[in-house]
Fold this sequence. Notes:
Pfam families: Cyclase. By secondary structure, the protein is an alpha+beta fold.
Amino acid sequence: MIAEIQHKTGKYKIDFSKPLDISIPVDLAKQNINAWYLEDPEISPVQSGDWVGSVAQGADVNFNTIVFNPHAHITHTECVGHITKEVHSVNKNLKQFFYLAEVVTLQPALQANEDLLITKEQLQEVLGNKEREAIVIRTTPNLLDKKSKRYSNTNPPYLAENAAEYLKEKGIEHLLIDLPSVDKEKDEGKLLAHNAFWNTKGELRMSATITEFIFVANEIKDGVYFLNLMIAPFENDASPSKPILYKVEK
């Protein structure tokens, strides 16, 4: 199905029959991604007396309970409520779901303290004067182990504070990245990039979101796409999400 969409930046043609899924699921058939020092997620059939919610074990239906943390175990989308004292729900604040996005590939820059950083200068170079509502950041090396990596105590790459500030000033509403966080794993709770992107020192950007733990396959080229940012309806600061990209033609 090919549709023509009128956007403020022009007209685009989208082939909805060719979605590009950039989410990572909870998948217990293999090693699941994991961060923030938690145990692995669990999916198990409900047990009530002698009854077990598994067709393979004689039940009429499969009836599983799932235990997971969205920040640690799955692609997730979070709102400013992730870092505010006041409760804010991503389900209430994310009200639109289609956005013009730019996919970019960046190699985090090695710093003097041996941290790997995505810098403001890198983002300025790839975005230039483009008008985008979302940015999808793929970091290199882009290996399949991103779908199963154990990130706790590994000090992954992260986003510089002024880089997040730049994205805010650029009008980027939705930031998607293939890392467990936009901030340093252990930063004494400063969360500099989160705070800068959501503008916590000024008027909060209630509709802005950060999506972490994506995986952008190497076959997906850098450039402009339409993003469908789908979330599960949890009244929580973050929700499991399934971001889908669609190639566009002007």
